[in-house]
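Entry 14. Ran structure prediction on the chain below.
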Amino acid sequence: MKKFLIWATGIFAAVLLLVFGMMFFTFNKIDTNTVTDEELRTSVSEDQIQSDAMSAFSQLTEDEQKAYIRVVKELENKSDVFYLEGNTVTNDQLERIWKAVTQDHPEFFWIDTYEYTYRPDTGEVDKITIRYNMDTDDIESAQARVDAWKTAALSGITDDMSSYEVARYLHDYIIDNTGYDTNAPNNQTILSVADGASVCAGYARAYQYLLNEAGIFATTAQGTTVLNQSHAWNLVKIDDEYGWIDPTWDDPNYTDGTFGTRDYTYFGISTTDLNKTHTLDTSLTTYPDFAEPSWNYYVKEGLDFDLDQSGAFAKITQAIEDKAAAGEKTLTLRVASSDQVDSLLNQLSYDSVSSSYNLTYVRNDYYPVILFMF
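Output, structure tokens:
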């Protein structure tokens, strides 16, 4: 009987050891994977995107932000399946998190969508399965093309360039090296721009990606346009001022290259002006009413005129003459109102500069912007 008790006690001790060992392993696993409050604070303080008030990350609750960081880590490791031990969220929260991750991270061009399982008793997501839009070998090949494109794009940035000059340079680089093509493969990602042809989503995500790589905060906004089409463009912060930029609508390829010149109508505009042609999707991010930033293209380049100010007309004709003398064929400028567009065109019809340079023009339907050709 004594031997039996010793044997039974030994079995019981072994079972307890196994159970506690499993519990220790489980708790250790949670401690290893779980994003803590401290890790969240560190991540926010060190990450350019997460720390910005207009990132998609900043729109999430703290619990969602922790799960967001977990998802980003798994995507960086290209995980197929992972669990959310310690940072569980509901399926509705996971949808917001996924949208925020894809909005903040255009570099994850190889992800497609996700699936999940959840706990019926709590509704919390348990397991996440990531679906990729290409296999491992194709990802490596595509990443090499993206890296080469990024290196080429950023190589044109010099130490003496201001943030405005960097943003304008990258805006021009994408426009000059990308054809607008609705049939382009991978056209919702930066890969399509790296391959030379895309649509608005590719343009916006590529611009966001390059700006972020250059140390300038940018995010991709989505919504619709006056053409009743889904559209994507950018919110950019330069010198602590936010402004809207739409590289797609600034690309002459978007209008079939009719005029063959880059536009800057949508480089640094206010929310009020944006709303004339764009409607924002605010299902995740609520955007303040941003005023026009001081780095608006026409303001920075001295091409913003008010004909009610003395000498404005003379400055315009001088700008046309200077462009022509430099061998350029176009000039885009802005005046204070649509009425001033009419007034300017009327004055030019009587001025010698018009006949001297065989001046023709195209006016914008929504903004007091005029493209002159000569």
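Residues 77 and 324 are 54 Å apart (CA to CA). Will compare against last week's run tomorrow.
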